Each structure stands twice: as C-alpha cells, then as structure tokens.
Amino acid sequence: MINYSGKKVLVTGSAGFIGSHLTEELLKAGAKVRAFVRYTSSRDIGLLKKIDKNLLAKVDFYFGDLRDIQSVRDAMKDFDMVFHLGALIGVPYSFFHSHEVIINNIKSTLNILESAKELKTEKIIITSTSEVYGTAEFSPITEKHPLNPQSPYSASKIASDSVAMSYYYALEMPITILRPFNTFGPRQSLRAVIPTIISQALLKDEIELGRIDTKRDFTYIKDTVKGFMLTGLSQDSIGKTINLGTGKTQSIEEIVKTVENILGKKLKIKVSESRMRPGKSEVELLLASYEKAKNILGWSPSFLFEEGLRLTVDYIKNNLDEYNISNYVI
Questions:
Q1: Structure pTM?
Q2: Are 116 and 108 in contact (CB under 8 A)?
Q3: pLDDT classification of 276: cutoffs 50, 70, 90
Q4: How far, CA to CA in Å, does 192 sit from each of 116, 140, 185, 250?
Q5: In Å, how far are 19, 109, 236, 300 from 240, measured between CA atoms?
Q6: Kind and range of the H or E element at 69?
Q7: Distance between CA 91 and CA 203 in Å, rounded?
Q8: What ranges do the domains of the chain cover?
Q9: 12/35 Cα distance (integer angstroms)
Q10: Could you identify which of 2, 6, 35, 297 might form a hypothetical disulfide with 14, taking C-beta atoms 3.0 to 4.6 angstroms apart as the criterion?
C-alpha cells in the first residue's frame, strides 16, 4: 500500500474528476490534505461531495482562485507537496473561449511555480494531457514524441509544461510533469465521451456522437490516481515527463459495442455534425507507451478496459439523475 503518513499535500482541481479521486486516496494513505477549491458564493466543493463523509471531515478546504498568486501562496504555505490539476479543460470549450483557457491555464501554473520557488516546496507535480501530442506520428507515443497543438486547450498545456520545465532547468526545482491519457471512471462528467455514451445508452436506443473512428488510450481512474501517488513519493521522477496510459486503444465505435454487451441491448449510432471538432483539430490516434512510468515509478495499469467500463456503467446507472443528456454537446 502507498503510504503518505505525515505528508502535507495540496491538491488543486480537487473538486474535479481526477482531483476528487486523488484527494480520497491520499486521505486513505494517511496524508494531511488541503483541497484548493475555486471560490463561489455557495462554497461548492464539487465532486468532493462524493467521497466518504468520514474522510471528507479530514479535508482542509481552501477556497480561492488559482489566477491570484496571493491565494496560491497562502494555500501552499507549510505544505510539502502540491499536485496541480486545476485547469480549464475540454477541447471543444477551448475553441470558443480560447483567451480564457490559455490565460487561466498558464497563469495558474505560473503561480504554482512562483509560490513553490518562494516556499521551497519539496515536490511539484504538474498535470499535463495526452492532447499535447496531437495525432500520433508514431505509436506507441513516448515522451519524446513531438508536441502538436491541435486545439487552444492543448496549446495552453504545452505552454504550461514548458514553463514548468524551465523552472526545473533554470532553478533546479523538484518538478515532475505527468501526462495522463484518456482517464475514465465513476464521477466523470458528460464533457467526456464515455459517460456520454453510457448515459444515452441507459435512456434510449440511439447514441448521438461525433467521429466514431478515432482511437484513444483509455485508463481507468484508479490506475491514473495510483500513478499520481507513486510520483509524489518518487525522487527519481524529478525533472521528468511521464506518460500514464495502458498501451491499448479503443475506438469510439468499439466502446459503443462494449456498452451494448454490458447492457444487453442493441444501440444505433447517429453521427452529428454539431459534435464534430474542426477538421484539422481532430486527433486521430492516441496510444501511450508507459515504459517510462514502469521503469521510474514501478507503475503499470491494473484494470482491463471492460472491467473499468462495467464499474463506470454501474456508477452512472445508480446516479443517472446527475447525467442530463438533453442538448448536451461534447
């Protein structure tokens, strides 16, 4: 079991999909966790509401804004480690709100780095994305693959990663960049394709999607979180960029077929233009090499895709009221 006893850990983006699961597992591993949550008048804690109440009672909440360096500095003070997951995510959103996405993601990362420099934080884990690679020029994709910004979102993450590595090289700061491929599992929103497929399949017989031939490397949430936690305790990961993926792909059409088998029903696919990315922005294939994660972290995926998909179907089935598919576009 991974042991974080005595560690004081800040998680940004803690109210989100991966962040809430990471916060939960860190608490189980004995860490003192401060959850950085974006301030709203309702003090909404997002998906952290989903974790066990006894664990939730141990969370030290910090409400603020990652774009405000004073807020970030105050949150990081006296903490050993920061997992920086906070970002505006979603490729389609970035097409229409490019300025917001780019400024937010770069500035929040810069504020983390500047605060860590001042506070001498012991470990900084920056969350990247497989989207930075664009359509694969070779596969499986290693960390040496060229970076290709096919959306403003991926451009914002490439820039953030570059700024982070400049702090490692210039200032010798203890930084690791993690690049999860397509993580899925319980709690994920309709922003992602797997919950979109499952929620539609549970309610009707026709699935409305965009491209169905593109292929992605889908990693179950517990495997992704395990990669984060191993990274936090690894000195060998400092100064490295590390992929987290399974080394296998599923096309969108193949996912629909697997959901059909799980639910025992036949589904019709309707391809909708409104769900398509602009032509040159579409990433055709993402397939990870996780050799570096295996060698440095001792990490490898444990969950088979169908096993994770069944767990996700069960979750959405039991929480279907949270998945309003009407007029939702990926």
A1: 0.94
A2: no
A3: low
A4: 32, 22, 10, 14
A5: 21, 17, 8, 17
A6: helix 69-76
A7: 26
A8: 8-185+220-248+284-303
A9: 6
A10: 35
